[in-house]
Write a structure and sequence with these properties.
Elements: E1 13-21, E2 24-31, H1 42-54, E3 62-66, H2 72-80, E4 85-90, H3 93-105, E5 115-117, E6 129-135, H4 142-155, E7 156-167, H5 171-180, E8 185-190, E9 194-199, E10 214-222, E11 225-232, H6 243-252, E12 258-264, H7 270-277, E13 282-290, H8 293-306, E14 310-315, H9 322-325, E15 331-337, H10 347-357, E16 358-369, H11 370-377, E17 383-391, E18 394-401
Helix pairs in contact: 4-5, 7-8, 10-11
Length: 402
């Protein structure tokens, strides 16, 4: 099935930039919601230059652009080498959607099977790829970066190549991991800001599963309730609760919730796990949705330890896509944690989505920055306000659909 450009992405575009690779002229739409929103970043430029000079790109048949962002790396290769089968992967559904959008912008045909939202190199088989390319996100953390190097070195063919770029301050993490996995270094180069590594297949492997992402398991307290939760790096509320969760607790503990629930942007899973632990609540089923596969995976993981009902997970690039997934008035309780993209007019669409998904006479809870909530409030029609509280720049509103 061929990917078709979604016009709803257009409102999320910040600017369009021109680029050239190996004599091919390209253009890319960028977003404030994704890395490098004003230009092609220096790390990607350096990695592409090194590939053009050092790698026999015409010989590679299968490749993965993992952590693809807006798709710059893989699209450049696909434009020059159209016969190369390239899979694009990112943990962010918005990134994957922008990759598909930019491919279409450059008259490159991608299919659904070429696009995957998931963690680095999820669902890839050992020895299956000729080339893996990645602009490694610095925020991934040393442990995840090291695991990625091991996974990448076992995913390529014996004659294959992994080509990565990393901020210079983390080059030792990559270098040490390459040595530890027994891979041979093919090429390195660096600037003051970035380091590039090309390396081959490794001789050592690690057993990798989602447990490797868990960095803390402990007990948390919200209002008077204690609950156990595992957390991961790269998401807020890792080892202590932030203000938005405390404000949410102060509002939500006064009300009983039941039926089918939806959580948008569940983070580490604090709210669904805490609400499920309260005897006054009885969820028939729980749906979790976000852009971020890491949020969904850790929330699913935590709910699996304490909740016996059905949990369904969905990844979409933006809140407005929720109405594509769910029926009108499908949920008895909707919990929306706002994380809007800057410079995007999102308020009216979100208000309409909240109204559509919530059953008449049931609840919708919305939490966000006070400034965002003030703008959103102007568009909230068809609801009665039950609770409204704010603290240190955070504001939550519990609404009941009329």
């Amino acid at each position: 099935m061929k990917y078709k450009t979604d016009p709803r992405l257009q409102k999320l575009v910040n600017k369009q930039v021109a680029f050239q690779f190996h004599g091919e002229k390209l253009k890319f739409d960028l977003s404030m919601g994704l890395f490098s929103s004003f230009d092609i970043d220096a790390g990607s430029r350096l990695l592409l230059k090194s590939l053009a000079k050092e790698a026999p790109l015409g010989e590679y048949k299968k490749a993965i652009d993992t952590g693809c962002g807006t798709g710059v790396l893989g699209i450049c290769l696909k434009k020059k080498y159209p016969e190369m089968q390239i899979k694009f992967q990112d943990r962010d559904a918005l990134a994957v959607s922008f990759t598909a959008h930019n491919a279409a912008l450059n008259e490159i045909i991608l299919h659904k099977k070429d696009l995957h939202t998931g963690l680095l190199l999820d669902n890839t088989e050992a020895g299956s790829q000729d080339l893996i390319i990645c602009n490694i996100p610095a925020k991934a953390g040393d442990h995840v970066i090291s695991d990625f190097i091991f996974k990448a070195s076992s995913t390529i063919t014996p004659e294959g190549r992994v080509a990565v770029v990393i901020v210079d301050s983390l080059k030792e993490v990559v270098s040490d991991a390459i040595k530890a996995c027994g891979a041979h270094v093919i090429h390195t180069e660096a600037t003051k800001m970035h380091s590039v590594f090309h390396f081959g297949a490794g001789t050592e492997t690690r057993e990798l599963n989602f447990d490797r992402y868990i960095r803390h398991t402990g007990r948390f307290k919200l209002i008077e309730d204690k609950y156990k939760l595992s957390t991961v790096y790269n998401l807020p509320d890792f080892d202590q609760l932030s203000y938005w969760i405390h404000v949410s607790g102060e509002i939500l503990y006064k009300t009983s919730f039941s039926g089918k629930a939806l959580f948008w942007n569940p983070g580490q899973g604090h709210l669904p796990v805490w609400l499920n632990s309260r005897m006054t609540n009885e969820f028939k089923s729980i749906n979790i949705a976000s852009r971020d596969s890491l949020q969904n995976k850790i929330t699913e993981y935590n709910l699996s330890k304490v909740y016996e009902g059905e949990v369904e997970s969905a990844l979409v690039p933006d809140e407005v896509y929720l109405k594509d997934l769910y029926q009108e008035e499908e949920f008895s309780c909707v919990f929306l944690n706002l994380d809007p993209i800057p410079k995007v007019k999102w308020h009216q669409d979100l208000a309409a989505t909240a109204l559509r998904l919530t059953r008449t006479g049931k609840f919708c809870f919305i939490m966000g920055r006070s400034s965002d909530m003030s703008q959103l409030e102007k568009h909230l029609k068809g609801f009665k306000t039950i609770e409204d509280d704010r603290f240190k720049g955070n504001r939550g509103m519990l609404l009941k659909k009329k």
